[in-house]
Amino acid sequence: MNNEAKNNLKKGGKAAIYSSLINLLLALVKGVIGFLSGSIALIADSIHSFSDIVASLAVYIGLKLSMRRPDEKFPYGYYKIESFASLIISVIIVITGIEIALDSYNAFLNPSTIEIPLVALFVAALSAVVSFLLARYKQEIGRTIGSQALINDGKHSFIDIFSSIIVFVGILSSYMGYLRIQGISGILVALLIIYLGFKLAKDDILVLLDANMDPEKIEEIKTIAENVAGVEGVHAIKVRRSGPFVFAELHLETKKGLSVENASEITGNIKKAVKGRIKNLDSLTVQIEPFKKERLRVAVLVENKNGLQSDISEHFARAPYILIADVVNGQIISTVVKDNPGTTLEKKKGIETAEFLEKEKVDVLVSTGVGEGPKYVLSDKSIDVMVPRCKNLEEMIMDVYK
């Protein structure tokens, strides 16, 4: 875990603590005024606020434990504790919805008048405003650090706004003589709360089961990786969330015979590019596979222009001609013999020949006469050099495709 990730988790922990303290103060105020005014709805909302404290503490504990370093028992870290904390909050949201539904049903059956209604109205309105500010704060921090638990806690606070509005409407309607309005509106909002809680719980369970929750991220990783030099193809991309972080893996297709150094460089470039775009990516595992093209362009150095009957040259830069064959699905579909431009130079003949092969988009060169300098240039241009295992020119070309 890097320093930025640690700072993000600390920031989330502070947000959870601030939320707990504010909810504690709010719960006490609503409880006292509810008792003095005789408002059952305000007392129920006070109990609801105490459940918010439990939710915020669950977020804090989850984020705090997520900061622990990976060890022998948990080599992938403790990040899923944050997801588990998010699930607890989702369950609390469902329970809260059921409580509000029961209280609303009771208020509908047994409506009552309120003492000191103006004070009770002020407290209910204050609760709605504070809940709104808390919800905005927690969701903003949650999105910034990628914490689903904190985002869910913010959604929970948005539910508190509706709860406080129900209380406000109930007290106001009681004051105006319409005693049953609070119960009806409360039941409707409670059903919405229960639905939201189940939806969030479903998402949390899927995250804990390593389900792919973000198909768009797979496409983003695929696009980034395919734009890295030396990559022939990308497939089998898997993405999973673990707390606020993302873990990904992919299979990378490269040219056959790629050196360990080049493979390592390509892998490093992919990881750097992906992590540069996806800030909450903790780990990217890359598995390299040789890429077998349906169409290959094969070059062989020859002594004369006789097509597939040409004599094979043992030289590289001094070979007068280059035969280029296009092979599709194991069949030679076309051949052409071209002059080797390297023979016209006094110096750097091999480099000139290598650059010519690149311009011709050659995939594989079959030759025994390539020196270290040209071989390095060819490797840098992703052109494989293969030592011939056959004496016949046609068999030599077909051997490359196998």
Description of the structure:
It holds the Pfam family Nitro_FeMo-Co. Residues 17-209 form the Cation efflux protein transmembrane domain. Residues 214-290 form the Cation efflux protein cytoplasmic domain. GO terms for molecular function: monoatomic cation transmembrane transporter activity. Keywords: Membrane, Transmembrane, Transmembrane helix, Transport. With 402 residues, the chain is α/β, with parallel strands linked by helices. The protein folds into 3 domains: 3-208, Alpha-lytic protease prodomain-like; 215-291, Cation efflux protein, cytoplasmic domain (Alpha-Beta Plaits); 295-401, Nucleotidyltransferase, domain 5 (2-Layer Sandwich). The protein is 59% helix and 16% strand. It is built from 11 helices and 8 strands. The strands form 2 sheets. A 5-stranded mixed β-sheet has the order 6-5-4-7-8, sandwiched between helices. The protein has a 3-stranded mixed β-sheet with strand order 1-2-3. Helix 1 packs antiparallel against helix 2 (40-66), helix 4 (117-145) packs antiparallel against helix 5 (148-176) and helix 5 (148-176) runs antiparallel to helix 6 (181-208). The protein is rod-shaped. The model has no long low-confidence stretch (mean pLDDT 82).
